[in-house]
Structures are given as C-alpha cells and as structure tokens.
Amino acid sequence: MVMNFTLISEITSADMWVNVKAEVLQLWENHSPAISQVGLIKDGSGIMKFVCWKKANMPEVEIGDKVTFENAVTSEYQGKISLTLNSKSRIIIEV
Q1: Does residue 56 contact residue 86 with C-beta atoms inside 8 Å?
Q2: Which of 5, 37, 41, 49 is buried most, with the most CB atoms less than 10 Å from its CB?
Q3: Distance CA 90, CA 28 (A)
Q4: Residue 70 falls within a domain, yes or no?
Q5: Cα separation of 3 and 56, whole Å?
Q6: Domain count for the chain
C-alpha cells in the first residue's frame, strides 16, 4: 500500500486525517496526566505542534528523531492547528 504524505504547510484546518514525515524539533514539559508527549515537529515546509495522548500507548520520541506520524488527526486550540496522535495513529521512528 502506498502511503500519501501531507506537508505541514498543507495542514490548514481541524479534523484532517494525515500522514506526516518530520523531525522532532522540541519537546515540552507536560503537566497533564492524559498526555504522554507534546512538542514541535518540522518538515521542509513548516513547523507544527503535536500532542500524543497517553492512552494511545505510542513510543516516545526524542529531539532530532526522524518520524512518520500515520493517521494523525488535526485539531484546533486557541486558533492554532496541531497534530494529535490517538489510538488509531502510529509513530514510526527511523533508525
């Protein structure tokens, strides 16, 4: 199966299901027990926040990791679009 990838610059609204190839740029201290990781990813077209829910049971990423986010869904909070990884999503970390 051929996977279609979306550039960060093409993500313009909430409720989009996308596959994104990017690099982990930054991770933030997280204060919510429902969230496992939050940070920024970048590709050649832009930078976007991502949120990984704890119940999704995803592998943890590190700054500098090259990742593929499969079946991530976009959401909007305070006027900004971000990527959300949930139980239908998958993170692949390149080695």
Answers
A1: yes
A2: 41
A3: 20
A4: yes
A5: 21
A6: 1
User: Left, alpha or beta for 71 (phi > 0: left; psi -120 to 50: alpha)?
Assistant: left
Whether residue 20 contacts residue 69, with contact meaning beta carbons closer than 8 Å, is answered with: yes
Query: Is 74 within a domain?
Result: yes
- Give the closest residue to 24 by CA, choosing from 59, 62, 53, 56: 62
Which pLDDT belongs to residue 1? 64
Three-class SS state of 56: helix
Over residues 24-77, the pLDDT tens digits come to 999 999 889 999 999 999 999 999 999 999 999 999 999 999 999 999 999 998
33: left (phi over 0), alpha (psi -120 to 50) or beta: alpha
Q: Is residue 44, in this structure, part of any structural domain at all?
A: yes
N-to-C CA span, the chain: 21
